[in-house]
Amino acid sequence: MKDIYRDAMDAIKAPDALVQKTLNLMLEEHKKLEVITDTNADLADFADLNEVKALSKKNRWVARAVLPAAVCLCLCLSLIVPRLLNHEALEALEADEQHASAGLTESVIKALATDNLATRSGPATEYRETGTYQVKGEHVRLISLAYDEGGLCWVQCEVLYGKQLRRVYTGLKRFDVVTFDLDSVPEEDPPGDQARVIATSKAMYGPGDGYGAYAELTVDKGQTVTVIAIENDYAQVEWTTSRQSYRAWVPVHTLRY
Description:
Structural class: alpha+beta
Helix content: 25-40%
Order of helices and strands: HHHHEEEEEEEEEEEEEE
Number of strands: 14
Largest sheet: 5 strands, antiparallel
Mean pLDDT: 78
Number of domains: 2
Shape: elongated
Strand order of the largest sheet: 6-5-4-1-7
Distance between the termini: 78 Å
Number of helices: 4
Low-confidence stretches: 101-105
Protein backbone atom coordinates (compact mmCIF):
# COMPACT_ATOMS: atom_id res chain seq x y z
CA MET A 1 0.00 0.00 0.00
CA LYS A 2 2.82 2.40 0.89
CA ASP A 3 4.55 1.65 -2.41
CA ILE A 4 1.36 2.32 -4.37
CA TYR A 5 0.73 5.57 -2.48
CA ARG A 6 4.34 6.70 -2.93
CA ASP A 7 4.24 5.99 -6.66
CA ALA A 8 0.95 7.84 -7.00
CA MET A 9 2.41 10.89 -5.29
CA ASP A 10 5.53 10.72 -7.49
CA ALA A 11 3.22 10.80 -10.50
CA ILE A 12 2.93 14.55 -10.00
CA LYS A 13 6.45 14.83 -11.41
CA ALA A 14 6.24 12.09 -14.04
CA PRO A 15 2.55 11.24 -14.51
CA ASP A 16 2.64 8.99 -17.55
CA ALA A 17 5.30 6.48 -16.42
CA LEU A 18 4.33 6.30 -12.76
CA VAL A 19 0.61 6.12 -13.35
CA GLN A 20 1.28 3.17 -15.66
CA LYS A 21 3.49 1.60 -13.00
CA THR A 22 0.76 2.02 -10.38
CA LEU A 23 -1.82 0.46 -12.66
CA ASN A 24 0.52 -2.48 -13.26
CA LEU A 25 0.85 -3.00 -9.49
CA MET A 26 -2.93 -2.95 -9.18
CA LEU A 27 -3.24 -5.58 -11.90
CA GLU A 28 -0.68 -7.77 -10.13
CA GLU A 29 -2.65 -7.51 -6.89
CA HIS A 30 -5.82 -8.42 -8.77
CA LYS A 31 -4.14 -11.49 -10.28
CA LYS A 32 -2.93 -12.56 -6.84
CA LEU A 33 -6.50 -12.29 -5.59
CA GLU A 34 -7.70 -14.55 -8.42
CA VAL A 35 -4.95 -17.10 -7.70
CA ILE A 36 -5.77 -17.19 -4.00
CA THR A 37 -9.47 -17.56 -4.74
CA ASP A 38 -8.71 -20.56 -6.96
CA THR A 39 -6.38 -21.97 -4.33
CA ASN A 40 -9.14 -21.61 -1.76
CA ALA A 41 -11.38 -23.90 -3.81
CA ASP A 42 -8.61 -26.45 -4.47
CA LEU A 43 -7.47 -26.64 -0.83
CA ALA A 44 -10.88 -26.82 0.76
CA ASP A 45 -10.10 -30.25 2.20
CA PHE A 46 -6.75 -29.36 3.73
CA ALA A 47 -6.05 -28.53 7.38
CA ASP A 48 -4.67 -25.06 6.57
CA LEU A 49 -7.99 -23.93 5.07
CA ASN A 50 -8.43 -21.28 7.76
CA GLU A 51 -5.05 -19.75 6.85
CA VAL A 52 -5.99 -19.65 3.18
CA LYS A 53 -9.34 -18.07 4.03
CA ALA A 54 -7.62 -15.44 6.18
CA LEU A 55 -5.23 -14.63 3.36
CA SER A 56 -8.09 -14.50 0.88
CA LYS A 57 -10.07 -12.22 3.21
CA LYS A 58 -7.10 -9.85 3.48
CA ASN A 59 -6.77 -9.60 -0.29
CA ARG A 60 -10.50 -9.06 -0.68
CA TRP A 61 -10.20 -6.11 1.70
CA VAL A 62 -7.34 -4.73 -0.42
CA ALA A 63 -9.41 -5.15 -3.58
CA ARG A 64 -12.51 -3.53 -2.10
CA ALA A 65 -10.93 -0.66 -0.16
CA VAL A 66 -7.42 0.14 -1.39
CA LEU A 67 -7.51 -0.60 -5.10
CA PRO A 68 -10.61 1.51 -5.90
CA ALA A 69 -9.02 4.44 -4.08
CA ALA A 70 -5.81 3.97 -6.07
CA VAL A 71 -7.82 3.84 -9.29
CA CYS A 72 -9.57 7.12 -8.45
CA LEU A 73 -6.24 8.74 -7.54
CA CYS A 74 -4.61 7.61 -10.77
CA LEU A 75 -7.53 8.81 -12.86
CA CYS A 76 -7.44 12.21 -11.18
CA LEU A 77 -3.70 12.50 -11.74
CA SER A 78 -4.01 11.46 -15.38
CA LEU A 79 -6.58 14.21 -15.94
CA ILE A 80 -5.32 17.05 -13.74
CA VAL A 81 -1.52 16.80 -13.85
CA PRO A 82 -1.19 17.03 -17.66
CA ARG A 83 -3.40 20.13 -17.61
CA LEU A 84 -1.14 21.79 -15.05
CA LEU A 85 2.06 20.79 -16.80
CA ASN A 86 0.80 21.88 -20.22
CA HIS A 87 -0.74 25.22 -19.15
CA GLU A 88 2.19 27.27 -20.44
CA ALA A 89 2.36 25.19 -23.61
CA LEU A 90 -1.34 25.78 -24.25
CA GLU A 91 -0.89 29.54 -23.83
CA ALA A 92 2.01 29.47 -26.28
CA LEU A 93 -0.08 27.47 -28.74
CA GLU A 94 -2.93 29.96 -28.46
CA ALA A 95 -0.52 32.83 -29.15
CA ASP A 96 0.91 30.97 -32.14
CA GLU A 97 -2.61 30.47 -33.50
CA GLN A 98 -3.22 34.19 -33.13
CA HIS A 99 0.02 34.86 -35.00
CA ALA A 100 -1.14 32.61 -37.81
CA SER A 101 -4.54 34.31 -38.02
CA ALA A 102 -2.79 37.67 -38.18
CA GLY A 103 -0.80 36.46 -41.21
CA LEU A 104 2.62 36.63 -39.57
CA THR A 105 5.41 34.70 -41.29
CA GLU A 106 8.62 36.26 -40.01
CA SER A 107 10.81 34.58 -37.40
CA VAL A 108 9.80 35.01 -33.77
CA ILE A 109 12.21 36.54 -31.26
CA LYS A 110 11.23 36.13 -27.62
CA ALA A 111 12.71 37.57 -24.44
CA LEU A 112 12.12 36.79 -20.77
CA ALA A 113 10.20 39.58 -19.00
CA THR A 114 11.78 40.36 -15.63
CA ASP A 115 8.90 42.64 -14.63
CA ASN A 116 5.32 43.37 -15.60
CA LEU A 117 5.20 45.56 -18.69
CA ALA A 118 4.07 49.18 -18.37
CA THR A 119 3.49 50.15 -21.99
CA ARG A 120 2.78 52.98 -24.42
CA SER A 121 1.64 53.16 -28.02
CA GLY A 122 5.04 54.49 -29.16
CA PRO A 123 8.71 54.55 -28.11
CA ALA A 124 8.66 57.48 -25.67
CA THR A 125 6.77 58.73 -22.63
CA GLU A 126 4.98 61.29 -24.83
CA TYR A 127 2.84 58.52 -26.36
CA ARG A 128 -0.50 57.32 -25.08
CA GLU A 129 -0.38 54.79 -22.22
CA THR A 130 -1.60 51.36 -23.26
CA GLY A 131 -1.79 49.56 -19.93
CA THR A 132 0.35 47.29 -17.77
CA TYR A 133 0.50 43.60 -18.65
CA GLN A 134 1.09 40.90 -16.04
CA VAL A 135 3.71 38.86 -17.91
CA LYS A 136 6.59 38.78 -15.42
CA GLY A 137 8.49 35.52 -15.83
CA GLU A 138 7.05 34.86 -19.28
CA HIS A 139 8.69 34.95 -22.71
CA VAL A 140 7.35 37.82 -24.82
CA ARG A 141 7.68 38.29 -28.56
CA LEU A 142 9.79 41.27 -29.66
CA ILE A 143 9.00 43.06 -32.93
CA SER A 144 11.44 45.98 -33.15
CA LEU A 145 13.43 48.48 -31.14
CA ALA A 146 13.71 52.28 -31.21
CA TYR A 147 15.45 55.00 -29.21
CA ASP A 148 13.86 58.13 -27.81
CA GLU A 149 15.47 61.57 -27.74
CA GLY A 150 17.18 60.77 -24.46
CA GLY A 151 18.81 57.63 -25.90
CA LEU A 152 16.53 55.23 -23.98
CA CYS A 153 15.91 51.97 -25.82
CA TRP A 154 12.28 50.94 -26.28
CA VAL A 155 11.06 47.66 -27.75
CA GLN A 156 7.84 47.05 -29.61
CA CYS A 157 6.53 43.78 -28.19
CA GLU A 158 3.47 41.62 -28.63
CA VAL A 159 1.23 40.46 -25.79
CA LEU A 160 -1.97 38.46 -25.61
CA TYR A 161 -4.87 40.33 -24.03
CA GLY A 162 -8.02 38.26 -23.70
CA LYS A 163 -8.31 36.49 -27.04
CA GLN A 164 -6.51 39.11 -29.13
CA LEU A 165 -2.96 40.30 -29.64
CA ARG A 166 -1.59 43.75 -28.95
CA ARG A 167 1.59 45.42 -30.14
CA VAL A 168 2.82 47.95 -27.61
CA TYR A 169 6.08 49.61 -26.55
CA THR A 170 7.99 49.24 -23.29
CA GLY A 171 11.51 49.88 -22.00
CA LEU A 172 14.20 47.33 -22.81
CA LYS A 173 15.10 47.34 -19.10
CA ARG A 174 12.07 45.13 -18.39
CA PHE A 175 13.62 42.18 -20.25
CA ASP A 176 16.53 39.86 -19.47
CA VAL A 177 18.92 40.69 -22.31
CA VAL A 178 20.83 37.41 -21.93
CA THR A 179 17.76 35.42 -23.00
CA PHE A 180 17.86 36.70 -26.59
CA ASP A 181 20.14 38.26 -29.19
CA LEU A 182 19.51 42.00 -29.17
CA ASP A 183 21.28 42.39 -32.52
CA SER A 184 18.63 40.16 -34.11
CA VAL A 185 15.83 42.59 -33.18
CA PRO A 186 15.37 44.99 -36.12
CA GLU A 187 15.76 48.69 -35.38
CA GLU A 188 12.92 50.84 -36.67
CA ASP A 189 13.54 53.16 -39.58
CA PRO A 190 13.01 56.91 -39.08
CA PRO A 191 9.42 58.06 -39.62
CA GLY A 192 8.55 57.95 -43.30
CA ASP A 193 6.17 59.79 -45.60
CA GLN A 194 3.11 61.68 -44.56
CA ALA A 195 -0.28 60.52 -45.75
CA ARG A 196 -3.82 61.82 -45.67
CA VAL A 197 -6.59 59.68 -44.24
CA ILE A 198 -9.35 59.28 -46.85
CA ALA A 199 -11.66 57.05 -44.80
CA THR A 200 -12.22 56.91 -41.04
CA SER A 201 -11.14 53.61 -39.50
CA LYS A 202 -10.62 52.03 -36.12
CA ALA A 203 -7.20 52.43 -34.54
CA MET A 204 -5.80 48.88 -34.30
CA TYR A 205 -3.13 47.40 -32.03
CA GLY A 206 -1.56 45.49 -34.89
CA PRO A 207 -1.61 44.65 -38.60
CA GLY A 208 -4.50 42.19 -38.89
CA ASP A 209 -7.82 40.86 -37.65
CA GLY A 210 -6.05 38.90 -34.92
CA TYR A 211 -5.29 42.17 -33.11
CA GLY A 212 -7.58 44.20 -30.91
CA ALA A 213 -8.77 47.75 -31.48
CA TYR A 214 -8.20 50.76 -29.26
CA ALA A 215 -11.25 51.68 -27.26
CA GLU A 216 -12.91 54.90 -28.48
CA LEU A 217 -9.98 55.82 -30.73
CA THR A 218 -10.29 56.28 -34.49
CA VAL A 219 -8.10 57.63 -37.26
CA ASP A 220 -10.42 60.14 -38.89
CA LYS A 221 -10.94 61.13 -42.50
CA GLY A 222 -9.02 64.29 -43.43
CA GLN A 223 -6.38 63.70 -40.77
CA THR A 224 -2.67 63.83 -41.66
CA VAL A 225 -0.47 61.02 -40.31
CA THR A 226 3.13 59.86 -40.63
CA VAL A 227 3.69 56.32 -41.86
CA ILE A 228 6.07 54.28 -39.67
CA ALA A 229 5.79 50.80 -41.18
CA ILE A 230 3.63 48.71 -43.52
CA GLU A 231 2.75 45.05 -42.93
CA ASN A 232 -0.04 42.75 -44.17
CA ASP A 233 -1.85 45.59 -45.99
CA TYR A 234 -1.86 47.63 -42.78
CA ALA A 235 0.14 50.75 -42.03
CA GLN A 236 1.48 51.77 -38.65
CA VAL A 237 0.85 55.49 -38.44
CA GLU A 238 1.70 58.26 -36.00
CA TRP A 239 0.05 61.57 -35.19
CA THR A 240 0.20 64.17 -32.46
CA THR A 241 -2.56 66.23 -30.88
CA SER A 242 -2.42 69.02 -28.35
CA ARG A 243 -2.59 66.36 -25.64
CA GLN A 244 -0.14 63.63 -26.66
CA SER A 245 1.24 61.46 -29.46
CA TYR A 246 -0.30 58.25 -30.81
CA ARG A 247 0.68 55.23 -32.87
CA ALA A 248 -1.80 52.74 -34.29
CA TRP A 249 -2.43 50.50 -37.30
CA VAL A 250 -4.94 51.21 -40.07
CA PRO A 251 -5.69 49.56 -43.45
CA VAL A 252 -3.43 50.86 -46.20
CA HIS A 253 -6.40 51.58 -48.46
CA THR A 254 -7.60 54.29 -46.03
CA LEU A 255 -4.51 56.38 -46.77
CA ARG A 256 -3.49 58.55 -49.72
CA TYR A 257 0.09 59.76 -50.15
